[in-house]
Design goal:
With about 160 residues, this protein is an all-alpha fold. It is about 70% helix and about 0% strand.
Length: about 160
């Protein structure tokens, strides 16, 4: 993606990729498909289910609070990816475009975005607890760790952002 366009900035490439990941794999259609057609006890099934972690939905059977929390998590993953792509210095301090530091900065941005999005959305649950916040932040960081390499690849080779 970013490898072919030398004018794309690393934060925008990472954010666009995060938006596509959340829109496609967080959709209710994908979540239904992956639940019906994969085995969570296999590595492939586990990873395909993990892709659906920041889900969004418009189901009228759910309570408004659960819809808002689920959608807020998906929105925050995308927004926080942009924030952390700007804040992580690896891509801005790299001397040459396309260095491995851009890859790791994009990957780390997605790990942080997943963890913080989960942590922040826990505050809006009916009975938030510290243990629940830690568990969901771990789930978000796990999502970022195993899916964030895609963001890293998208930021690799992009312009370093602000000069």
């Amino acid at each position: 993606m970013a490898l072919t366009n030398r004018y794309k900035s690393a934060p925008s490439a990472g954010t666009i990729t995060a938006l596509v990941l959340v829109l496609v794999f967080g959709s209710p259609w994908y979540a239904d498909w992956v639940t019906d057609n994969t085995n969570p006890e296999t590595a492939g099934g586990w990873w395909l289910r993990l892709l659906a972690w920041p889900h969004w939905s418009f189901d009228s059977d759910d309570s408004l609070r659960s819809i808002v929390v689920g959608d807020l998590k998906a929105i925050l993953v995308v927004v926080l990816t942009l924030v952390f792509c700007y804040l992580l210095p690896g891509s801005q301090l790299a001397r040459a475009r396309g260095t491995i530091s851009q890859f790791f900065a994009g990957w780390a941005a997605y790990i942080f975005a997943g963890g913080f999005a989960a942590l922040l959305t826990t505050l809006f649950l009916a009975n938030p607890s510290l243990l629940g916040a830690f568990r969901t932040a771990g789930e978000g960081a796990t999502y970022g760790l195993f899916v964030g390499w895609i963001i890293g690849l998208a930021t690799l080779g992009a312009r370093r952002g602000t000069r």
